[in-house]
Design a protein that fits this description.
The structure is a homodimer of 327-residue chains. Chain A is built from 10 helices and 15 strands. By secondary structure, chain A is α/β, with parallel strands linked by helices. Chain A has 2 domains: 4-128 and 316-323, ATPase, nucleotide binding domain (Nucleotidyltransferase, domain 5, 2-Layer Sandwich), CATH 3.30.420.40; 137-310, 2-Layer Sandwich (Nucleotidyltransferase, domain 5), CATH 3.30.420.40. A 5-stranded mixed β-sheet of chain A has the order 3-2-1-4-8, with helices on both faces. The longest helix of chain A has 25 residues, at 243-267. At the A-B interface, strand 10, strand 13 and helix 8 of A face strand 10, strand 13 and helix 8 of B.
């Protein structure tokens, strides 16, 4: 027998859900727009319908006796023990909501039996997904960093999620590396996210392009309309050797590397898995990040330092949410 | 019955050793200059003599059946599982040395029986001492910071030492908070230690006094000979309301607070125990540190933030080393 579960990634834009086999990985998946306007109750109904549909379709090939449950990754502060989701960003109208128990009851109404439901923070779910099925499979301990609109993180220690005493651990985006610097995010000065969150990267690139005597391919790629400039333009420009784009990504990598050095100093973690949309830029970020990480840590800590790209892309959350049911 | 053990704090200047009762605390102690010049072998002989003497004197009141062993805190990188001490600073002539096993054999030659020996890093031992007998007794999870010549740290998670995957965790002194700033320590720019290690505090104070139009009581306390200026002068000046000294300690507290905020963001640790010689300055550092810690973390993480002074002073290492034997 081989266990299987449903893994759900609840986002502000879409709900991604999959049937995941413990040994076989992702078997089928679905992706629907989040009914944001319907509030917690509406979203729970939406989730329970998705669960019931996926469950019934899975029974064509899978044994109900091997069903391990439903795992859910959600944005915002999650208390996995109490099953609470608090103030999810991008989901208006929520405060503190007993998401796990409400979902469990709604699923029982659909399927007429009790299904075990586990919930966790979406960054934690993604880190756990990479740990069990992705780039972190061979690492006992690592930090997963998600570079996207925000900069998020999840910590794996001894193959388990490290959530911290109150469940809010892993916030690498709020690590301060330039405490008197110009960057400000959520009222905090000099954080990693204030410097390399997506909009900050584009702002920095715009300034660099405008002050470059020769301009930049990235500028031409967006028709010199910087309101349209995106990380994709900057990535493509770097691949074609554009000097401004190369310097930009080196700077982003350097800032990331300083943050990772702090993780190594404090927690002795030496493996890093980098995901999120921005991570597609690859070695243009990873190489300077690793160089900075080495320069910014003591030599006895250089053994085993490694930065690798995530493998599961935007499926990591579904994988990890399902894997919560196999733990 | 109540267990007892010997706790040793091996330093570059002195060896402090104590008989510690699990329930009764420190029963007797000794303090001898470290025979630095005699190399690892000589120090092991010195340690085994101290152990044998303390053990024999303890038997006047304590039962040998309740003896739990010898715990040792040592400077530098310690591998507690393998019992190795690597390149201790301030102890010339050591490279990688099997300190635990050598000490165990030397003690067997003195006492004619096998004594369990545990070793750990001195900062970890101090943190564990505060956890079991000191300011951390009521905290499940906390970071101990030692403010002295250097800035060290030890992490307690779930009432146990968190040593990290390779045993080097807790190096809060190497946390970078000003990555392009002027401070440099051990080749790394902008670390906490590069900004508030003891010599850096005195350097900063000297600059502040020299550029102050009215001077500072701290300057007068050292006879305006800044080569003699010490944190004690700056502490006394602050207690008497000296403006320069107050601003200095506020700055030190602010820098500490930024470092602690990074620990809260990454590990979700919200309790901090501050020891080491500089910590005697007390609220002049702690108050701005706590204010900065709150300003530099998200509101959902403000619950339970606390900074408290260590309670065991320079005895924390002996307490913690002994407590390693009760674990």
């Amino acid at each position: 027998m081989s266990l299987w579960a449903l893994g759900i990634d609840l986002g502000g834009t879409s709900i991604k859900a999959a049937v995941v086999g413990e040994d076989t990985g992702l078997l089928s998946s679905t992706n629907v727009p989040t009914a944001k306007g319907s509030g917690p109750g509406g979203i729970v109904r939406q989730l329970s319908t998705i669960v019931a549909d996926l469950y019934r379709s899975a029974l064509v090939t899978l044994d109900p006796a091997d069903f391990a449950g439903v795992g859910l990754g959600a944005p915002g502060a999650v208390d996995p023990e109490k099953g609470l989701l608090s103030y999810p960003p991008n989901l208006p109208g929520w405060s503190v909501y007993p998401l796990r128990d409400e979902l469990q009851q709604a699923v029982r109404r659909e399927l007429l039996f009790d299904v075990p439901v586990s919930i966790d923070n979406d960054a934690n779910a993604a880190a756990y997904g990479e740990a069990v099925y992705g780039a972190g499979r061979t690492f006992r301990d690592f930090l997963m960093v998600t570079l996207g609109t925000g900069v998020g993180g999840g910590i794996i220690l001894n193959r388990k999620l490290y959530r911290g005493p109150q469940g809010t651990a892993g916030e690498i985006g709020f690590m301060i590396i330039d405490f008197e610097g110009p960057g400000l995010h959520a009222g905090i000065r000099g954080t990693i996210e204030s410097m390399i969150g997506k909009t900050r990267i584009v702002e920095l690139a715009t300034r660099m392009i405008e002050s470059s005597p020769t301009g930049s391919l990235a500028g031409r790629l967006c028709g010199n309309d910087y309101s349209r400039l995106s990380p994709r333009h900057l990535e493509q420009a770097a691949r074609e050797g554009d000097e401004v784009a190369l310097v930009l990504w080196e700077r982003v990598g350097e800032i990331l590397g300083v943050g990772l050095a702090n993780v190594t100093a404090l927690m002795d973690i030496r493996k890093f898995v980098i995901g999120g949309g921005i991570s597609a830029v690859g070695h243009f970020i990873f190489d300077p990040a690793l160089a900075t990480l080495r320069q910014s840590t003591l030599p006895p800590m250089h053994d085993g330092l490694e930065i690798v790209p995530a493998l599961l892309g935007n499926k990591a959350g579904m994988y990890g949410a399902a894997a919560l049911c196999f733990g």
